[in-house]
Design goal:
It contains six helices and no strands. By secondary structure, the protein is an all-alpha fold. It has one domain. Helix 1 runs antiparallel to helix 2.
């Protein structure tokens, strides 16, 4: 078996770095934000136009989105030629995350300030739409990915966790969307994002470990092949 190419290795590494970068971004950004209650307020508020240092969270969105696209490409190459729709949908989720980061919310708070008119700008609408597309694509992508993982001996044990992450994300999202401004939704949203991102990092780490093993096997085979010695 040939070793992992540099491009595939980079994509697999992105599958670990993206979730880490995004998590670090909201942890750092919330500490810099005045009067921010992470238990109740949304992560995207940290990148809002009136937030303190919104560039930190914006960078987190873009980093996660770009890394997710790169990871999806690496996963598609590894599982191909019949990878199914899973990697493509995960890539769509990555692109949607980039859009959600570029088009930001109008305000940090879930509620307008006293005297401020209700409603939101078209840019905020784009952000909300991108977030919804990313959530749906990521969840459905995990469901579509599970059968393909089950058919691969190297990843068979990850099929169940993929469905578990998708189910947990879908359930939390459904509860979250029933009332997006209810107390405690900040914690719900963080759990909703962390669960699938943790699975993504786990699968990416498995790709990296597999790549190291196959690269080592290929190197040993080359050294042992008499016809390749000079």
């Amino acid at each position: 078996m040939l070793g992992m190419s540099r491009r595939r290795r980079f994509g697999a590494l992105c599958g670990v770095l993206g979730p880490v970068a995004f998590t670090v971004a909201w942890l750092v950004a919330q500490r810099r934000q005045d009067d921010y209650q992470f238990r109740h307020e949304h992560i995207s508020g940290l990148a809002a136009k009136d937030a303190n240092d919104p560039s930190v969270m914006t960078a987190g969105f873009v980093a996660l989105g770009g890394c997710t696209v790169a990871f999806a490409s690496s996963l598609d190459r590894r599982l191909g030629p019949r990878a199914g729709a899973g990697p493509t949908l995960i890539g769509v989720a990555g692109l949607a995350t980039i859009v959600a980061g570029i088009f930001r919310r109008d305000r940090r708070s879930n509620f307008p300030a006293p005297g401020e008119p209700e409603g939101q700008s078209w840019e905020n609408d784009v952000h909300d739409a991108a977030a919804a597309v990313g959530g749906v694509a990521g969840t459905v992508g995990l469901v579509a990915l599970a059968p393909r993982l089950a058919r691969d001996p190297a990843f068979r044990d990850l099929a169940g966790p993929a469905l578990g992450a998708a189910g947990a994300s879908a359930g939390i999202s459904a509860w979250f969307l029933r009332d997006v401004v209810r107390p405690g939704n900040g914690l719900l949203q963080r759990a909703n994002l962390t669960i699938p991102l943790a699975f993504m990092a786990r699968l990416a780490a498995r790709l990296l470990i597999e790549g190291d093993r196959t690269s080592g096997s290929a190197t040993r085979s080359t050294r042992q092949a008499p016809g390749l010695r000079r």
